[in-house]
Amino acid sequence: MEINRRAIELEEILERETVDLMGVTFDCICGRIHSIPIEYLAVRRDALEEVGDQMGIRGLSGTGGVIYDKKIEKSVIYKPLERLRAQRIDFVSYPVGDGRKELQPEVDLSREVAEGIDENINFLISIGSGVISDLTKNASSYLGLPFFLIATAPSMNGYTSSMAALTDKGIKKTLMVPPAKAVIADLSILMDSPIEMIRSGLGDIVSKSVCNADWKLSQLVKNSYFCPVPFRITDRSEPLYLESAREMAKRTEHGIGVLTDGIMRSGLSMTVIGTSTPSSGAEHLIAHYWDLIALKEGRKKEFHGVQVGVATIMMLRLYEFIRNYPVKKKVSLSMLKRVYPSRESVKESIKKKFGRYADGVCEEYFQKYMDWNEKLKEIEMILDQWEEIWNELDPYIRPTEPVVKALQECGACSHYTHLGRRKEEVCTDVRDAILIRGRYTLLDLAEDLGILGKAAETVL
Ligand SMILES: [Zn+2]
Ligand SMILES: [Zn+2]
Description:
- By secondary structure, this protein is α/β, with parallel strands linked by helices.
- The chain has two domains: 36-192, Rossmann fold; 205-459, Up-down Bundle (Dehydroquinate synthase-like, alpha domain), CATH 1.20.1090.10.
- Helix content is 54%, strand content 12%.
- It has 24 helices and ten strands.
- The chain has a six-stranded parallel beta sheet with strand order 3-10-7-6-4-5, sandwiched between helices.
- The longest helix is centred in the last third of the chain and has 20 residues, at 304-323.
- The model has no long low-confidence stretch (mean pLDDT 95).
- The structure holds zinc ion (2 copies).
């Protein structure tokens, strides 16, 4: 009976429009209580006009600190600032950066931002996209101040997530932060955002199939927690954004509306669980790995979601290949034992590959490293339960072609060569990406079975 009641309540919640999910708390079929602590979300044209009223309703008074990237002050920020002034909101501007250099989403920078905020500031307002939102979230967490997020581009899914994705010594970390009081996405602003940022938003959310399959896989192999609700939350928007990619490319109100709704739902799928797992699987590891090597080599990073989109296609192809691989015939345990790396040898190779970032990489990787005897048990279980595992994963895995088509229709990169990477490089990238995060994904499974190299060689 109890399970029934929960299931019925859950179905009712999943039917709701995205903006009506704010503030919900429910008993989930997974046994946990989930909640979305963001109080208010607006995704519509002219949503900026209600910032002042919403502040009153949410109890924000006094002086606000407005945080934005100085680089886009004149091109993008002036309009929202004007709207805030017109509503007689009292605020002080805190532009970040020198107006020329690209801002880096780093923990240290968020601390600097927090330190720069005057003592009389009562709340924060972030105007920007990924980097500025994450910096503000973390700064507000240091300062204990409530905040509003005003979106300027539908470029990533972080607005509605209760996490800040910031790098610490080169390694991407997901830091828990208090939720925004309100998230304001004014479509008339978002429709003007650069096309690359729109493509990036689409790339970020097409990953959800891989993320949830990886998460489910991790439950099946590691016996860890999994909940089907995040997948269901994002599932509803998937057909809409896959069909509307052309409209996104044209930046129509419908196209940008669908995309923005999709990124908001994707963020919520993380918020309900309190981790980034439902929206960050192996494709995100690959994207973060590319960020890390760009940093190491002093190159400019690509947009997050653009990389995620490309890596999603790679992962969907790997899923298909590995799903159909005759492991029982081809995997030899004695061979795997011979090549299994010791702790010391992994440490050595991480040092060689990652140089000054090696300590951070080791910290992540050794969360999942196992000595051979333990690993052997895990591999035997996987081989033994191979069919059952894939039966459980199948509902989460989507065909590759509709995703490729949507990315192409939006004009986004859909192949690693579009990012300037060569085949021999990505065949190594997928193996090295395993090292930078403690999270278990399909890449770990394939590497443990000794088939990742062959899979990458065949399908990438
Ligand atoms: Zn649940
Ligand atoms: Zn992402």
